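Bit of a strange request maybe. I'm writing a small parser for structure token strings and I need a real example to test against, not something I typed by hand. Could someone generate the tokens for this chain?
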Amino acid sequence: MKFIDSAELKGKKVLVRVDFNVPLNENLEITDDTRIQMALPTLKYILKEGGALILMTHLGRPKDGPEEKLSLKHIIPHLSECLGVPVQFCSDCIGPDAKPMADALQPGQILLLENLRFHKAEKKGEPEFAKALASLGEVYVDDAFGSAHRPHCSTYVITQYFPDKKYCGFLLKSEIENADKVLKHPERKYVAIMGGAKVSEKIKIIENLLEKIDSLVIGGGMSYTFLKSQGFCIGTSLCETEQIDFAQSLLKKAKDLGVKVILPVDAVIADKFAADAEHKVVTNKDFPEGWMGLDIGPESVKNIREELLDAKTILWNGPMGVFEFDAFAHGTFDVAKAVVEATEKGAFSLIGGGDSAAAIKKSGLSDKVSFISTGGGALLEYLEGVELPGVTALN
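Reply from user aminoacidic:
Good idea to test on real output. This should exercise your parser:
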């Protein structure tokens, strides 16, 4: 794989696939610009080296062509401010407007193309669409780790039109290198923390990691499937009954491999799924019928912290509870503090994308961990051991 710092960019039109799939509020304002901020080093480097920037990305999941609320024109003011350069905008990503605007672009200038997914051909991987995109630039750079697991036109098919001029951006490089620290050559002791709602979404990751880790912490909604498999009452908590056999077999396999599994020993339970629900702390043995677990309890946090403090590698994917509700955010935030404590003692800590990244950001501790991935699904698939088409295409 060739990296962007080995590319000749001066005077070139550089077509960059970024991941600016950022959340917008009802006023169509960006509520979290992390993905834009993470791409800035690559974009500023290209401008500094004398290239002209042509940016392509998707936003949201448009169903049948263009949707006003998913137009990339809404991010232009903020993007221009971040780059310190006015960003031009093309109302389509291919066609009679895009080509002349790209051709007219001068070094130091920036053109943002309209949402790639307004064309169904993008997700279908149609070669003609990829060829039209490729015609806009002379050099191709992929810096969109969040889309690397999709064999779409802009991440995969397009690379065939740049056989000698396709490069990996700084963000994509950093994502792969940091993921490899927990996947290929982790320092021991290695603790993986798995949370979130469903066991079924984490099966392949856990199976791929089990022979690499020393300890497995299980929290969040998925923990109740494991507790149920051990005979505990879980009330009306989330449970994937079809995964109970898997949970039992996983615990047995972990024991055979000498991997320590830490399950919650207490929970913050609620009488309904709501921010204002009545709630209390109970142990696993005292869990009443009719109540649901929405967070791990203080004893569980204590056990997790003790496990983390002598760790050298930490992977965290998935919150410990419904952190969106303040009453049920303490477990997630306290585990975040423990991860930070371990990091300050010398551990490498990787926070998985999606809800995990949102949780660590909400806790105010983002700058105190080693690395936060921008890729939700892409990171999960990479941790499962799956080859990412967007990365393979650059090799």
